[in-house]
Automatic annotation (TrEMBL):
<dbReference type="InterPro" id="IPR035906">
    <property type="entry name" value="MetI-like_sf"/>
</dbReference>
<feature type="transmembrane region" description="Helical">
    <location>
        <begin position="263"/>
        <end position="280"/>
    </location>
</feature>
<keyword id="KW-0813">Transport</keyword>
<comment type="similarity">
    <text>Belongs to the binding-protein-dependent transport system permease family.</text>
</comment>
<dbReference type="InterPro" id="IPR000515">
    <property type="entry name" value="MetI-like"/>
</dbReference>
<feature type="transmembrane region" description="Helical">
    <location>
        <begin position="107"/>
        <end position="129"/>
    </location>
</feature>
<feature type="transmembrane region" description="Helical">
    <location>
        <begin position="187"/>
        <end position="208"/>
    </location>
</feature>
<feature type="transmembrane region" description="Helical">
    <location>
        <begin position="12"/>
        <end position="32"/>
    </location>
</feature>
<feature type="transmembrane region" description="Helical">
    <location>
        <begin position="135"/>
        <end position="156"/>
    </location>
</feature>
<protein>
    <submittedName>
        <fullName>Carbohydrate ABC transporter permease</fullName>
    </submittedName>
</protein>
<keyword id="KW-0472">Membrane</keyword>
<keyword id="KW-0812">Transmembrane</keyword>
<dbReference type="Pfam" id="PF00528">
    <property type="entry name" value="BPD_transp_1"/>
</dbReference>
<keyword id="KW-1133">Transmembrane helix</keyword>
<feature type="domain" description="ABC transmembrane type-1">
    <location>
        <begin position="72"/>
        <end position="280"/>
    </location>
</feature>
<keyword id="KW-1003">Cell membrane</keyword>
<feature type="transmembrane region" description="Helical">
    <location>
        <begin position="71"/>
        <end position="95"/>
    </location>
</feature>
Amino acid sequence: MNTINRGRQVWLHLPMFALAAACVLPFLLLVVSSVSDESSILRQGYTFFPDQLGLDAYRYLWNHSDQLVRAYGVTVFITIFGTAASLLMTAMLAYPMSRQGVPWRGGIAFFVFFTLLFNGGLTPTYLIYVQYFDIKNTILALIVPGLLMNGFNVLLMRTFFMTTIPPALIEAAQIDGAGEFKIFWRIILPLSMPIVATVGLIQTIIYWNDWFNGMIYVTDSKLFSVQNILNRMLTDIQFLSESKFSAQLGDAGANLPSTTVKMAIAVVGVLPIIAMYPFFQKYLIKGIAIGAVKG
């Protein structure tokens, strides 16, 4: 009987192993391609076992390390500050929406949901932020537009509050003399760590991977984020390798590792998020499972 159960467990785990391999193998191919020689990729294509290895792509990035270090500093700052501000605003909006006695609760929920369906478009948004809020070439341009508040996160957190926090607990705190802010800071947030970690991880990934705001609102190179710097490096190397200037550069232009640089850029951009994910995994799974329940 134990042998049958063990065999059944093996067969049930095989699809999960296959799914895990389908997620891991592309990233492994990305890393191997980034340390492959450019000529090997052009000759063999992308493979797990290249004929020749090389670090030309990472040498190219190392030659621009001063820009990358500054860009990493900008990205780390906007990710930490933006995520913290976004969590605070999201929680402070979602919590009143989860309370039954709050006036205009339904109207606020409709307004939040409306933002998920419609927006004003790029041109009006750009004019509002540049002409009226004057955030062009400021650090706020990488934090505020389209990132600071997300209607989906608000509704996700509101559902968590409604389905997880017992109303009797809030009533008991009120009877003991606690005000709304004390209840929110001392009771609600500590009990909501799963959804806070979930939304925080989502916002962290969004801020870390954002390149659009930098492309639209920032022209000062000192404010470029990692994604903007890597995108510009990729554009520059493609321009040098494909344009008429490649002939003027001679062998240096012809041998630019444009293919492997793409892979190295992807590795450099994604590694910090991968390193951080294991610390938030259990909160992410629990927060999404509970917060996604219809409420």
